[in-house]
Write a structure and sequence with these properties.
By secondary structure, the chain is of the alpha/beta class. Helix content is 45%, strand content 15%. Helix 2 crosses helix 9.
């Protein structure tokens, strides 16, 4: 009887162990079936993408993880096709650089309907333009003229009254540097940037939203930031104005791309990329009001007055070059 009882207990333990193992495998399989989405997008864009996916049949079928631009860019360039993500949204210049190095993205399998031509392996989700921004009340209080150009920010009357971003930590600053190099070449840009940094003093920000926050609060009178943020603030009745600088409104896009993992590719990733574009753009336009696709309309206020494109292709290497130029000016 004792032996029979031992055999029964052992048999029961084996059944329980097998059951636990099967349950664990089932759970792992369930997670493994989900599309992993990596993104550098800010909160508004993440919300719009989630709404597009959740409201169109993909709720609980993906795992979304956010990163800073530099962090995610480093992962993409370092890991290539071995990256855990199936789908990414990221600054387009990082996607281009990673593709040139690793050939890691699939050609998109859907008609995007984009207004401009883009590589076959990505399509933009947002576009952001640079602009001069100012606090209408602070400008009056300090008897300042509203600047017409980025170069105007070097004038002595703007000392300690302007805010800009550091290109080593925010791509917003790259829009300013592109505009200056296009107009004044690299040597001229260095002369101007040194004076701008001197005028900014302690108001050289690490975040792209830093200048607009300080301009809103009246801590500074003028800044260089993202145009759509100033447009939105003005529409909401805040004492904010904006100027399209004579050097031009330059643009950075963020795009969606699908990782090519061969026969290990998650087939749902391509469908989700299409879903984000087809169903997310309407909400995205509310925050980033630049028309990117056929049929999209934005108000005249949201159309910049001096749009320009940098003469060189935007790459990670070019960014590093301009970051060094910036460092030399501090």
């Amino acid at each position: 009887m004792k032996n029979l009882r031992k055999i029964s207990i052992l048999f029961l333990m084996l059944i329980l162990l097998a059951s636990t193992t099967m349950t664990g495998c089932g759970k792992k399989s369930s997670i493994g079936d989900k599309v992993i989405l990596y993104t550098n997008a800010d909160d508004e864009a993440v919300t719009a993408m989630k709404n597009a996916l959740d409201n169109n049949g993909y709720k609980d079928k993906y795992i979304l993880q956010t990163f800073g631009t530099s962090e995610l860019g480093g992962k993409i360039v370092a890991e290539g096709k071995n990256i855990e993500a199936d789908l990414i949204t990221m600054s387009s210049f990082y996607i281009d650089s990673a593709e040139n190095q690793h050939h890691m993205f699939k050609n998109l399998e859907f008609d995007t309907g984009a207004i401009d031509k883009y590589p076959e392996y990505y399509t933009p989700i947002t576009a952001q333009e640079g602009s001069i921004i100012y606090n209408t009340e602070a400008v009056k209080q300090n008897n300042l003229e509203i600047p017409k150009s980025i170069k105007d920010l070097t004038k002595p009357e703007y000392k300690d009254l302007i805010s800009v971003t550091d290109v080593n930590s925010s791509s917003t600053a790259w829009l300013l540097i592109q505009a200056m190099i296009s107009e004044y070449n690299e040597d001229g840009t260095k002369d101007i940037l040194k004076k701008i940094y001197k005028n900014a003093g302690s108001h050289i920000e690490q975040s792209g939203s830093g200048p607009i926050k300080k301009v809103r609060a009246g801590e500074v009178a003028v800044g260089f930031g993202l145009r759509h943020q100033a447009v939105r603030d003005k529409e909401q009745g805040l004492p904010i104005g904006y100027v399209d600088p004579t050097e031009g409104n330059f643009t950075l896009t963020e795009s969606v791309a699908v990782i090519d993992k061969g026969n290990k590719s998650n087939q749902e990733a391509m469908k989700m990329a299409e879903c984000i574009i087809k169903n997310g753009r309407q909400e995205l336009l509310k925050t980033y009001p630049i028309a990117l696709y056929n049929g999209e309309n934005v108000s005249q206020d949201n159309k910049s007055g001096n749009p320009k494109v940098f003469k060189e292709a935007l790459t990670v290497d070019l960014l590093k070059k301009h970051q060094q130029l910036s460092e030399d000016c501090k």
